[in-house]
Amino acid sequence: MPQKESPSFEIGKKRLPSAWAFTVITGAVLSVILTLYLAPSKYPIADLIAAFSLVIFLGMFGWHRSGIAAGCKPLTPLIFMLLYVAALAFSNGTEDGAQTYIKELIFGFLPFFLLYVVFRNQVPEREPSLLLALFLIPGVVHLAFMYLDVFVALQKGNIPFSSSSKQGMLEYIKDAPRVGRRYLSWALLHLLCAGWLMTWRHKHARARYLAGAMTGLSILSLALLDARAAYASVAFSGAVLIFVIGPGTAWRKIRPYLPTGLGRIVLVCFFMVVVGLGYSAGKSRWISMSYSIKAATHDVFDSQVELSQRPFVDESYWSAPIKDINACYLEGHFRCKVDQSAYLRTAWILTGMQSLWDHPFGIGYSDDYMGRLWGVAGEPGKFQRGDNFLVQHVVSFGVFSLLFYAWVIWGVLRSTRRAIRSGRASVSLVTLCAIILVCAGRGLVDVFSEGLWRYFMALLGMYYGLLHSSARTISNDLR
């Protein structure tokens, strides 16, 4: 019998020898881009590589085969968002701030189209391997740097280990990673997706043990980082995805991967260790969370203090050095009694939602949008902006921003549900839907900026590239 030829791709008059060569080269380039997007201040380098790569892929496939025209359709809500931002800026005189926002939004289209073109034209048999590499490599790189940074900090004596009624023994570990908890926790969440894909993709026991070890290390690392925003976003993603898939279908698909017997006991013990580590790494924050939320609610709605002097407006209140930290805790001073992150995030979210009543169409974007809302724009020692994607858009652009971004997420959910019902949904597609939902949940309590926004758009590009691929065959993964 004649041997079956390996698939190949044309570049002008030349041909790549095999689909594997294309996948390996593509995976290496895209992994570098995504790794750089998850490192603060490295995103301009990733943008240059992405732009160069997109030109090459468009030259390989041509305009029609690339499917870029079809890829524009999922971006319709963001295109409307651009038009709305421009119109609002013209009407209220915030053109300078609008230009900055529009530029960042448009730059996100670059990784979207790059990943869309690649996955739309990828050989179906290689799609899971490519997706696994794009989750695995950036996650492993950032995980390695995390423990390197922790080791160096320990060598220098920068991580004190002291336990008290107010603080846990591991509370200072989360300050060691150079990229910061926001970027690192994002990378670790994607590493969890890599562990799941490896478990599904490889049936051999060794591969599954490796995937389990990698997943376990990622979860332990998230616990050491005290990444509460990551915990909340995973819970949000899981709840929404189960609702979309259906509880019965979701349970039937997850159940075969759950351990039995001794493995179940090991799993329970593991999560007990995770809870213990997470509590020790953020004890002061956990025990003060309830009080912090109540205090923020009071200061927004019931405080008699002048607005400019309230703690969630006064940045200098939090930046002033504490002379005696022990006395601050023992005497119950507000600054040490409250969790700064929980207090400020809660107050800013409530203030942002409150602004919809007075400014339903937003006040326009600028670097001092919160300062303008509070009437303290430009004043030294006052917060000028929030650290929250939701608040940023509610205050700056009002209710329409909520509608446009909800439209983006709704498009993913609706297409995933349709793909599942028609039998076209692969595990890779559902995994991408899950991590996109994690990002959406993260935006409710955290900020998307620069590289993180581009990474989110790259995920959308992967998702719609898989969904629109003309080479896909009907999958039985979720039937």
TrEMBL record:
It comes from the Bacteria. InterPro entries: WaaL-like (IPR051533). The chain crosses the membrane at residues 20-39, 45-63, 75-94, 100-119, 131-154, 183-200, 207-225, 231-250, 262-282, 390-413, 425-445, 451-469. Keywords: Membrane, Transmembrane, Transmembrane helix. The keyword Phosphoprotein does not apply. This is Uncharacterized protein. The lineage of its organism: Bacteria, Pseudomonadati, Pseudomonadota, Betaproteobacteria, Burkholderiales.
